[in-house]
Amino acid sequence: MNPPDSVNLSVDNGIAHLTLNRPERHNAFDDHMISVLDDRLREIADRGDVRAVILAAEGK
Fold first, then answer.
1. pTM for this one?
2. 27-38 pLDDT, tens per residue?
């Protein structure tokens, strides 16, 4: 099972930064990763202060 922090979220100056954080699995999408990413995107959508989203990944 993946930890809940497999997708990290931070917001700075209206920009949400989503970072995939499973470099040992090459940040491959599985059901859990998709679920956590969906949760983070919904969290962003519910905020009124986010104007842009950057998706990045840890590792190579």
1. 0.84
2. 999 999 999 999
